[in-house]
Every structure is written in structure tokens, then in C-alpha cells.
């Protein structure tokens, strides 16, 4: 690698990590009033796997629809164009990163943690009355996406980081700076930016490890930081008070949620997590 930057690494893998054409086609259509719901549904139904996943997610407890939805056009009517774009993006990304080297990462475990974080981030945003809280679902799902770029582009150095960290996630970012020169969060931010996704998403992911450095979308960065810590703590079977005791005063003051509110949403996250994960994985393991 001739340039030791996150941007260069993403540029080098641009073709490998590009989103499918259908995502960009549907993004353009959902933002253009010339296209009807039926026009959009027709494009989606040409991809049976995408159609099945969308219907499965829309019919899950996550969206809480009372009557079963059995057509794509009805799904679009119920969830709206913005949520549709988010769901299409999510399913596209899961497919884009489904061939990562086995010796570096268990992709099932990776997406388990990512979906956990996504559900928690969305619930935190909802509790904070954030408008369009689905963007935090995306941020949670994609916060660690830069790691997959590192595993693919520079597997040897990535392996050095993982071995040195010895399963301690708290050490990973520092080791990445020492061994690689930048973090997976910086790579993730660059990748999101290269896809032409909103600045709120790229900035939250770029600074989720250091939310105090976020310039414009500070609340999103702090919510994502808190969601990742809660997801990791949950994986370690730690209690909410113990996790929150390690969260910075700045994050707690910006988020402004009580311990009881966070404990309540963590219980809710358990109920929503399984259905979302199954919908994304279509009931199968990722390897």
C-alpha cells in the first residue's frame, strides 16, 4: 500500500465493495415522483431474494404491522420510501460482504453483533425522539463495516491486530492505529461516503469510537458509541449499570436517558433482535 490512509484503502477496493446496481436504481426511483409505487415494486420483484427478505422484515414484530403484508407494493405503502431505501441498502450490504476469509472472522457472529447494535441504536434514537430514527439502525448495522474492508484488503496486518487484541474489543482501535495507521471506524466512514450515503451516516460511523470529535452529527455519533458499548456489554452478560459506569459524562449528558430507560429498551431489544437477524440471513448461516 503506497499511501497509508483509510481513503486510499477504500479506493483500492472500490470495485470489490461496490453496491449492486439495483440499489442505485431504486434509490433514484424512490426519490423521483415520476415513478409510482407499482413501478418500484416491479423492479424489486425481479429480484426474488430481495423481495423475500423485504417481506419477511416488514412482517416481523420490528414493524408491528397488524395485518399480514404479502405484496411489495403494499409493503412500500406501509413503510414508506425512506424505510424502503434503508431496507434495500441493508440487504444489499449483507450480500456484498458474504465472502470474507473464514480465518479472520466468523461472519455469523459479526452480523449477530452488528444487528444487536443496530436494534439498540434505533431504540436509543427512538427514546431520544430523534427524527427518522431508522438512520441509527443503519449506523448500528454498519458501524463495524470498515473491519471487513481491512480483513479483505490487508489480511496479514488485520490478523496481527486480532491476535494482539486476543478477543478484547477495547484494544482493537489502539492496535489498528499502531499496526495499520488508522482504525476500522475511519475506513467505515470513507466507505459510506464513497457510496454516496448521507453525511449523518458517514460521520457517525467515522467517529463512533471518538464521538466527541464529531462536528455536525454529534448526537448520532454519541448514540452509536453508546449502542456499541451496550451491545458489547450485553454479549459479555454485563448489567446495564455496570456498562453505564464506564460511559463518558459527555455521552450521558448528550443522550439524556436514565438508567431505567436504557434498561427498559435493552429488554425490548431482545424481543426485536431475533426477527431482524433471521430476516437478514434468510434463516441460514452466513458461511
Task: Describe the overall structure.
- With 287 residues, this protein is an all-alpha fold.
- 68% of the residues lie in helices and 0% in strands.
- The radius of gyration is 19 Å and the shape is globular.
- The mean pLDDT is 88.
Give the helix/strand layout.
Layout: H1 6-12, H2 21-30, H3 37-45, H4 48-58, H5 72-96, H6 107-127, H7 134-142, H8 145-153, H9 155-165, H10 169-179, H11 184-194, H12 199-206, H13 218-235, H14 240-244, H15 249-255, H16 259-281
Helix pairs in contact: 1-11, 2-3, 2-5, 3-5, 4-5, 4-16, 6-7, 6-13, 6-16, 7-12, 8-9, 8-11, 9-10, 11-12, 12-13
Distance between the termini: 29 Å
The chain-level structural class is mainly alpha
Task: Determine the strand fraction and express it as a percent band.
Answer: under 5%
Largest sheet: none
| Oligomer type | single chain
In summary, what is this structure?
With 287 residues, the chain is an all-alpha fold. 68% of the residues lie in helices and 0% in strands.
Features:
mainly alpha, 287 residues, single chain, 16 helices, 68% helix
Amino acid at each position: 500500500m503506497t499511501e497509508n490512509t483509510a481513503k486510499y484503502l477504500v479506493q483500492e477496493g472500490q470495485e470489490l465493495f461496490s453496491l449492486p446496481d439495483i440499489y442505485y436504481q431504486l434509490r433514484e426511483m424512490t426519490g423521483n415522483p415520476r415513478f409510482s409505487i407499482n413501478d418500484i415494486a416491479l423492479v424489486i420483484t425481479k429480484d426474488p431474494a430481495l423481495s423475500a427478505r423485504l417481506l419477511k422484515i416488514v412482517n416481523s414484530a420490528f414493524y408491528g404491522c397488524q395485518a399480514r403484508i404479502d405484496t411489495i407494493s403494499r409493503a412500500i405503502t406501509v413503510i414508506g420510501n425512506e424505510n424502503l431505501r434503508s431496507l434495500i441498502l441493508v440487504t444489499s450490504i449483507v450480500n456484498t460482504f458474504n465472502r470474507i476469509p473464514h480465518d479472520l472472522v466468523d461472519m455469523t457472529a459479526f452480523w449477530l453483533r452488528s444487528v444487536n447494535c443496530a436494534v439498540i441504536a434505533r431504540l436509543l434514537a427512538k427514546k431520544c425522539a430523534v427524527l427518522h430514527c431508522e438512520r441509527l439502525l443503519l449506523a448500528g448495522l454498519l458501524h463495524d463495516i470498515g473491519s471487513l474492508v481491512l480483513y479483505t484488503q490487508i489480511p496479514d496486518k488485520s490478523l496481527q491486530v486480532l491476535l494482539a487484541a486476543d478477543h478484547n474489543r477495547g484494544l482493537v482501535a489502539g492496535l489498528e492505529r499502531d499496526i495499520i495507521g488508522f482504525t476500522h471506524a475511519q475506513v467505515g466512514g470513507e466507505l459510506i461516503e464513497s457510496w454516496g450515503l448521507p453525511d449523518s451516516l458517514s460521520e457517525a460511523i467515522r467517529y463512533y469510537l471518538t464521538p466527541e470529535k464529531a462536528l455536525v452529527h454529534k448526537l448520532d455519533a454519541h448514540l452509536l458509541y453508546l449502542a456499541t458499548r451496550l451491545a458489547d456489554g450485553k454479549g459479555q452478560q454485563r448489567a446495564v449499570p455496570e456498562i453505564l459506569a464506564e460511559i463518558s459524562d459527555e455521552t450521558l449528558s448528550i443522550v439524556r436517558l436514565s438508567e431505567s430507560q436504557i434498561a427498559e429498551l435493552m429488554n425490548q431489544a431482545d424481543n426485536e433482535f431475533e426477527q431482524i437477524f433471521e430476516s437478514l440471513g434468510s434463516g441460514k448461516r452466513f458461511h
